[in-house]
Specification:
The complex is a heterodimer.
Chain A (H helix, E strand, L loop, with lengths): L3 E12 L2 E12 L3 E5 L6 H9 L6 E6 L2 E2 L5 H7 L1 E4 L11 H8 L6 H14 L1 H5 L10 H14 L4 E5 L7 H16 L4 E5 L2 H7 L2 E6 L2 E7 H6 L1 H7 L3
Parallel strand pairs in A: 3-8, 3-9, 6-7, 7-8
Antiparallel strand pairs in A: 1-2, 1-4, 4-5, 9-10
Helix pairs in contact in A: 3-6
Chain B lengths: L1 H29 L6 H19 L2 H27 L4 H23 L14 E4 L2 E4 H23 L1 H11 L1 H6 L4 H26 L9 H14 L4 H20 L10 H12 L12
Antiparallel strand pairs in B: 1-2
Classes of the chains: A alpha/beta, B mainly alpha.
């Protein structure tokens, strides 16, 4: 069995009176694609933001690549190899597509490697090559989502975290985005995904965690997700 | 006459640009109206003057103004703005006004309340080109402004640091998520922007041959009008607004004889811009 890239133990996050995460525990092994499925407000985004360092954690540990990171600032976590695609893409709107991509490889000093990564990104997302000089704020929603994913990949992450990447996209674009996720998974990138769309989660994930009211209530695999009567009723509408 | 006034306007506009571009840079990153930037300008003028009196080198005076301006700006950021970041921006604005007043009063206590001048005759030469007269002091201002603005252009548009500055000013969390150390970058941005405010102090001091404690009063509020016209955090908006306002002031007074106080024109233009293009002349996206 591959070693853990990330281990989250008994994580607690609180926003004033709301307990967003309550003893959340999960792990992702090298090369895996793990999805966190939960309803709106279950704490999926809070969990990913806590791993990235956007949210302060009250208790618990985050161990990334055998190192405790819960007290590190965000930029140091990113430098260790965690990339994050937030909900709503959040590209840098007044910087062009190429600039956004170069920012993704901010820590890389070797120009050859940056060019190699750009070539790889453009092979995954040819549309971005066409839009290279365009300001990111003028892209369509789908293109922005592609750019956010591409920017995260430019850092050559050890762990790629993506938050609700299908949210607000047309069905055709959702399929395209998940095809890319599948391709990334096949290429060996370790992925932690949060998703409301349980069907899509089942398509790409090796393992799935169900998050409810800030707690991990179930860990299952693809078949388990699709055959569990409770999950079918709660998340698949069957 | 018209061309002469345009040259005069460009000279003034270049100085405005050196102050306003730094202010826009700081606003873009911290979202703070950095009134104390004009205090950096005053300190830069005095440091430059005294360095010149000791060394007789304008280049050394310019470097000293920039270095001390940088240090002063960084000190304001570290000891005043950073501790106040968690509070409303109004608190930082009030603190900034306080720092500006304290700086002017500090300068008054140390150097005295009277106007200080550069030695007579150092920049008195005049150059006649066609029908235009360019004074040596004007030439010094133009050359240093062009060099400084070219340096700002190169750093902000052609370097990784410039790209990171833009990223931090647009979304600090996301900038950190691509491994940019935003605190270090803020520190560097203050150092960079303040260096040019210090230089502007020296240039104005030499151009008008007077350095005095209250010389920051007009730049303190006029540079705010300029960055509003330019689109607040847009440093190239601030540049074009500075040039435009510099030329507008000179033409209005020198050619069209408009009977208005020179320093009111920037504000009249600001009101005009806010009415018809509130995002500023180069604002790409409308402000919320």
């Amino acid at each position: 069995m591959e070693k853990n890239i990330i281990e989250i133990k008994n994580l607690k996050v609180r926003y004033e009176n709301i307990q967003a995460l309550n003893n959340a525990t999960l792990n992702v092994r090298k090369g895996e694609c793990v999805t966190i499925v939960g309803a709106n407000g279950a704490g999926k985004s809070s969990l990913l933001k806590a791993v990235m360092g956007f949210n302060k954690t009250d208790e618990g540990n985050i161990i990334f690549n055998n190192q405790n990171i819960e007290n590190l600032p965000t930029y140091k976590r990113a430098a260790l190899g965690i990339s994050f695609v937030p909900e709503g893409a959040r590209v840098f709107p007044k910087i062009n597509v190429l600039g956004n991509l170069l920012l993704g490889a901010y820590k890389e000093k070797d120009k050859e490697k940056i060019i190699e990564r750009l070539d790889y990104i453009y092979s995954l997302f040819p549309r971005l090559k066409e839009r290279e000089k365009q300001l990111a704020g003028t892209l369509s929603g789908g293109e922005r989502q592609m750019l956010a994913m591409a920017r995260a990949l430019m850092g050559k992450p050890l762990l790629l975290m993506m938050d609700e990447i299908s949210l607000g996209l047309m069905p055709k674009l959702v399929d395209m985005v998940f095809e890319v996720v599948e391709e990334l998974h096949k290429s060996g990138i370790t992925i932690l995904l949060s998703e409301q769309n349980a069907h899509k989660a089942a398509e790409v994930a090796d393992r799935i965690y169900i998050l409810e009211l800030g707690k991990i209530t179930k860990e299952t695999d693809k078949e388990g997700l699709l055959n569990d009567p409770y999950i079918k009723k709660a998340y698949l509408g069957k | 006459m018209l061309l002469q006034q345009i040259i005069n306007g460009l000279t003034i506009g270049g100085i405005y640009a050196l102050i306003a571009m730094g202010l826009a840079l700081v606003y873009g990153i911290l979202r703070i109206i950095h009134v104390a930037h004009a205090g950096v300008y005053v300190v830069g003028a005095y440091i430059g003057l005294y360095t010149f009196l000791i060394t007789h080198s304008f280049v050394l005076a310019a470097l000293a103004s920039m270095a001390v301006g940088s240090l002063f700006g960084v000190a304001v950021q570290k000891f005043v703005y950073l501790p106040l970041l968690k509070h409303s921006p109004i608190i930082s604005l009030i603190a900034s006004i306080g720092v500006f007043i304290a700086t002017q009063e500090g300068v008054r206590l140390i150097f005295g309340p009277y106007i200080k001048s550069f030695p007579s005759g150092i920049f008195d030469a005049q150059y006649h080109i066609g029908g235009i007269i360019i004074t040596q002091s004007q030439l010094v201002v133009l050359v240093f402004s062009v060099l400084a603005i070219s340096a700002i252009w190169f750093v902000t548009e052609k370097t990784k640091f410039g790209l990171a500055l833009k990223a931090v000013s647009q979304d600090m969390d996301m900038a950190e998520s691509v491994a940019i150390d935003s605190k270090k970058l803020m520190f560097l941005a203050f150092a960079f922007g303040s260096a040019f405010a210090g230089l502007a102090g020296l240039l104005v001091g030499s151009y008008f041959n007077s350095v005095y404690p209250a010389m920051g009063d007009v730049p303190a509020y006029k540079s705010l009008a300029i960055i509003v016209v330019g689109g607040m955090s847009n440093i190239w908006g601030a540049f074009w607004a500075s040039i435009f306002i510099g030329v507008l002031e000179t033409l209005s007074i020198g050619v069209f004889n408009i009977p208005l106080p020179r320093d009111s024109l920037a504000f009249i233009f600001m009101v005009f811009v806010l009415m018809f293009k509130p995002e500023g002349i180069m604002g790409l996206f409308k402000r919320n």
